Queue: 4 jobs
Job 1
Amino acid sequence: MFLRETKNGESREVPLSTRAVGILRELRPDQDRPHGRVLKKQPGTITAAFRRSCDIARMKYVAECEAKDIEPDPDFLTNLRWHDLRHEATSRLFEKGLDVMEAASVTGHKTLAMLKRYTHPRAKNIAKKLG
């Protein structure tokens, strides 16, 4: 995917999985998206969509807990932010075996220091490698 506008002001290509490409292909341009954009170019669009998704997931979780007569965790999905997903995705890229340069090409991090800040490997996975 080619991103013309990025957070750091530089355009770049981002490698996508075949699954991501398939999902995007299903979102063909139509009257609402004449230029193929999935989201409107307005500040807060992604954040608002993400928040709605979290609220819906939270409601389903609470309903499922009530159906099973379980007390729902009051913090479940209440503090999750869109940006938290970047940390998670960065960490999982390394678990998939990508090297530093490959992961940075996906995440857009320009320095090793920033990439390290976003990477949180799971201790159990490191322990497995240690034997």
Note: The chain has a mean pLDDT of 86.
Job 2
Amino acid sequence: MILEYVRYQIPDDQTEEFEAAYARAVESLRESPDCIDFELARCTEEPDRYVLRIRWDSLDGHMQAFRSSELFRAFFTHVRPFVGAIEEMQHYSPTAVAGIGNGEPEPPSLYEWAGGRVAFERLFARFYESVAVDDLLSPLFADKHPDHAHHVALWVGEVFGGPTDYTDHRGGYENMLAHHIDKAITEAQRRRWVDLLVDAADEAGLPSDPEFRAAFMSYLEWGTRLAVDNSQPGATPTRHAPVPRWGWGVARPWQP
């Protein structure tokens, strides 16, 4: 990833025309597979100064792929009148110095949003009631521990940002992996597992907002597909890893 900065000094009587030209030109950036994002900012203290920031996937993505494309030719057609006003046009590589300020509060974890320990215990108690009478899944859990539902609640709670109880007291990732080795889980069983857990989430009263359910389903799909792969005879899964920590992903919780 590379950052391009272009600094302009635009006469007062041309600023409106300049911004209009860029509003048209950036359509080419929107279409470019090498452009990640862009922003044109105007200086508050010196309103005749502008900075264009473009984040490219790579230096070659900008200088070779984009610059040799029809998109660039369309882009340049709009901004050509202002090339003489450029004071700087350089590429910058990000450094390790980066972070988020306190002005952007962190959203609650998925664990907190769902209702904490009580919600996950309720979810998996209901889920394993359904599993016990399901012809497709019950054979997989015929030898499960009496506290199996509680243990899985600890695992998923930790994944969703809750306490690290599964790591601290149940053996973490390695223990969860051991429960899947050589089980030969089928795609039909995986899909039924997901379906029953989604039903249990509804019945247990977990949040139904689209943002939470999108993150919830994202983990179910990822986790169950990984479990299927790891459970096949002869599979060579990663043996040592931390418990994954799942976040909101693209859609953060909506709050008025």
Note: The chain has ten helices and four strands.
Job 3
Amino acid sequence: MTSLERLSARITACRLCPRLVAWREQVAREKRRAYKGEVYWGRPVPGFGDPAARLVVVGLAPAAHGANRTGRMFTGDRSGDFLYAALHRAGLASQPHSTARDDGQELRGVFITAPCRCAPPQNRPTPDELATCRAWLIRELGELHQATVFLALGKTGYDAIALLARARADRSKVRPPPFAHGVLASIPHPGRAGEATLVGSYHVSQQNTQTGRLTAPMFDRVLAEAARHAGL
């Protein structure tokens, strides 16, 4: 077992946030009607992807009936359908859909993670929950030795990486621009010594994709820019 796999096992055993533990387990018991016959994961969700990734995609948190059900980031819901289809178009995913942990999906040069590992009520982790979960993100990024580019899906992911970058350097000298779709900034690496690139994108949530706030061509352009900076 690799050190990243050992870390993933530790993440899945975490019970530090009582509200999140109660909610993720309640959802796993009650289930959605469409998934009544399935056994929900109902635990924290570790990152997924290529251990040698140069590009890290940073979301928000597992969806209650998506990753909280399947146990893999952005898997089993519409947000994941949008994301993996884009990764596949870019040649970074082996297949356009991610439906289960054993579906054969493989990522090339990409790792997907989030600042909150448990499905939160209303998809909104509290500041204290994000602070508690931050240690897992720090350790995970520390295991991704080749990562140089961070594509943040939404403001929460963007702020999480910016905060870690500022913590590794003189805060007064590290001022990434405010979150926006397509924003790009050079930052101190959030997981180790050196520099990195932070790219912002609107989140791939249904709220954004179904309203047209985020379209497939818009996301493809941002993903291509992030991949270019990562040398993919």
Note: The longest strand covers residues 195-201.
Job 4
Amino acid sequence: MTENGQNGYYDADVCALDDFASLVQQDADVRDVPHADAILKNIPVYDMNALATTLGTRDSRRRLMAEWARVLHIGAGVFALRSAYADTSAIDAATAIFERIISQEKEHAGGGADHFATAGSNDRIWNSLQKLCEADPEVFLRYHANPAIDAACEAWLGPNYQMTAQVNVVHPGGAAQQAHRDYHLGFQTAEVSAEYPAHVHDLSPLMTLQGGIAHAETPLESGPTKLLPFSQLYKPGYAAWRRADFRAFFEEHHVQLPLHKGDALFFNPALFHAAGANSSVDIHRMVNLLQVSSAFGRAMETIDRVKMSKLAFAPLKKLVSTAQLGGAALDAAIAATAEGYSFPTNLDSDPPTGGLAPQSQAALLKEAVLGDWSEANFRAALTVQDDRKQA
């Protein structure tokens, strides 16, 4: 595997497990993490009670954030914050609200699906961020008024980051997830991921940060996240993570860190990870998963692509039917017209059924243009799709 991939792209068939193993079988060096209280299982652990004053001044806060960024980028790829919430009353208040939301959503829709786990083995609240705010704005503000969480997000993404969150509850007997990498490229199929050039594989993890806030005691038997420190360093990892040999290596070498209520964990989205199996008899493991995005993941202008797609449908059908447009030229025209990416969306009403991402607007437009669709049928389907995203 060359540094920039095979001819500028990454191919799962030429990923080398030996190269991967040489990266992950190293040890974190305490000299690289001077603010850490300990290194446990290669994971730097920070005592946020002791570091509260460090976050209080600009220069010392920046030194700590620079250390966290190095850990995420070229270090273990993961760190833990002990007592991220020194006062866990906001955690308890939010937990009560989340439990009520789960009960209500089960009553109405049977619960949400998960990306990498069997439906039914857990409870999921999509967009727990907004739902908590709607349920109790004061609890929401107390919960998110957290300087340690804010500093961790800013360390990796800079200011003006975009916070989203999803609650995951794994019940006793809940099975583990499969090893994977995460959003963005981790949510694409292998075929779609392979279409992105190698340098975009390098960029993807810089655009998001994964985090989790423990809402209760999370001992090992409850199945805390399985992690493979340093695995984010393997550049072709988005091509490799589905391979059986890489997943087997992960299962043999991963580590897990027990968490206390109010602890938080942050990791590079390119880190190989998976939720663990809950082998306990009475622990319902609740973690609020933070999916934080860079402010730069946005276009410069606001475009009404629903309107453009409706206007373009009939001319596209005409150009295709008269053989004036097709193949790569058709793809280019659709790319300029319709939204080619499935996200952001409302995962309650537009879930990733049958895959990791819902159908995109561009895929719907192409299907309609190449199929025997009337303009009325396409407009109706496009409206339904847009309503699902906005609901």
Note: DSSP finds 14 helices and eleven strands in the chain.
